[in-house]
Amino acid sequence: MSRFEEAKEAYAAQGVDVEAALKKLQGVRISMHCWQGDDVLGFDSDALTGGIATTGNYPGRARNPEELMTDIKKAYSLIPGKHKLNLHASYRITDEKVDRDKIEPKHFKAWVDFAKEEGIGLDFNPTFFSHKNVKNNMTLSSPDKNIRDFWIAHGKACRKIANYFGEELGITALDNIWIPDGTKDVPADRIGPRQRLKESLDEILSVKYDRKNIADSVEGKVFGIGVESYTVGSHEFYMNYAAKNGIMCLLDTGHYHPTEVVSDKISSMLLFNDSLALHVSRPVRWDSDHVIKLDDELKELATELVRCNALDKVFIGLDFFDASINRIAAWVIGMRNMQKALLYGLLTPNKELKEAQDAADFTRVLQGLEEIKTLPFGDVWAEFCKRNNVPVDGQWYPIVKEYEKDVLFKRS
Questions:
Q1: Which one is catalytic: 279, 297, 299, 300?
Q2: Is 315 within 8 Å of 121 (Cβ atoms)?
Q3: Active site includes 289?
Q4: What are 305-314's pLDDT values in tens digits?
Q5: For residue 179, what are the CA distances in angstroms to 111, 233, 342, 353?
Q6: 3 state DSSP class of 182
């Protein structure tokens, strides 16, 4: 027997159908974030502001749309399956001088054409940072009505663009709102900014679109650079706002206290919501956006999605940016690790272990969860790569290094 056939038998002995697991994984689209390729600079600003920062100066950063698209295509060629691309509004492609409150679908037509060529979907994010109208760390919650109105117009424009993505591609586009608003020190007024944020969001979401085309989400955060003491858009604010308004609360794995884990939040959120959105990164003591590893929390998060039967209910997007390493390798490592984590969850005998837990056989639960760690997972993953005509582990990195030599290093 081949190693894959032996692996199938080993998992079958634990009650796991490997072919069913591979079939389910094939249908999961993960949204790969465009901003890893150019260090979040986008095409309409010269520097990062608003609490966003990247570190490192590895050569080969994409400097224009053509280079970014070329790098994205190279990354996709090394990742099994067909996925999505997550865009920020700052990545519009146009020769027009148009500010963010006036952007239109036509400014993103090149991305739609790219998506059609690649057979992928698109997600979208308004860009509430790196702009002169981020005033005193405030956007949608600013006490200045002119500032609020500018960003409300931007939010509305972005939803129209996301709807355009869904119409053109036939794949629902997630439009996710995150803002950097907050204060560096303890505020004198917490409720005022949150009241203004609520009213701003109400106006942005007042236009109704077909939910087949667009899904709306809001993303909270515990703190940020320059707003360490008070974040207007906290998790509690957005969780309640989303529940009241029938939209999604997006959970970013780096946006909570260091001892909190998103894997523990998923079941609670899904009990009260039809769908859920995730941004997956790796925090190192804070929201540091490291490339995700196949670590225990990533596997637990993915396994929880499987246990909750939520793979068709969740929008999974990646959100990390590391300028100290090869950016294409960062994409490939992150995307493949997210898929590996999902496969790990699909290859877990969840039904049998649930029955053991319900029967109070906690010894069996512990034994089962530990022993699956030594099953031949890698052989199943290798088969998934082969079926998708992409390199197995150990074979894709030389391809990236060759591309680095032939393309990336020549940009410097």
A1: 279
A2: no
A3: yes
A4: 999 999 999 9
A5: 24, 7, 29, 41
A6: strand
The answer to whether residue 404 is catalytic is no
Q: Is 287 a catalytic residue?
A: yes
The answer to whether 331 touches 30, Cβ cutoff 8 Å, is no
Crossing angle of helices 235-245 and 191-204, in 10° steps, is 40
Q: Which of 44, 252, 297, 300 is catalytic?
A: 252
Question: Positive or negative CA dihedral for 268, 345, 319, 68?
Answer: negative
- Residue pointed to by tokens 């290093």: 409
- The rounded radius of gyration (Å) of the Cα atoms in the chain is 22
Specify whether 185 is catalytic: no
- Residue pair 283/290 in contact (Cβ under 8 Å)? The answer is yes
Query: Catalytic: 290?
Result: no
123 is catalytic: no
Burial of 105 from C-beta contacts in 10 A (0-12 / 13-18 / 19+): middle
Q: Of 168, 287, 322, 383, which one is the catalytic site residue?
A: 287
Give yes or no: 300 in active site: no
Within 10 Å of residue 55's Cβ, how many Cβ atoms?
11
Chain center to CA of 27: 17
Query: Residue with structure tokens 């109208």?
Result: 133
User: How many other CB atoms are there within 10 angstroms of residue 226's CB atom?
Assistant: 13
Query: Which one of 319, 379, 383, 404 is the catalytic residue?
Result: 319
Task: Write down the catalytic residue from 38, 168, 175, 219.
Answer: 219
Q: Which tens digits make up the pLDDT trace of 235-260?
A: 999 999 999 999 999 999 999 999 99
How many Cβ atoms sit within 10 Å of the Cβ of residue 316?
23
**Distance from C-alpha of 238 to C-alpha of 232, rounded to nearest angstrom:** 10
User: What's the pTM value of the predicted model, to 2 decimals?
Assistant: 0.97
What phi-psi label fits residue 285: left (phi over 0), alpha (psi between -120 and 50 degrees) or beta?
left
Question: Measured between alpha carbons, how far is residue 402 from residues 174, 187, 321, 405, 406 in Å?
Answer: 34, 52, 22, 5, 6
**pLDDT one-digit tens code per residue, 317-369:** 999 999 999 999 999 999 999 999 999 999 999 999 999 999 999 999 999 99
**Catalytic annotation present for 312:** no
Tokens standing for residue 46: 């010269």
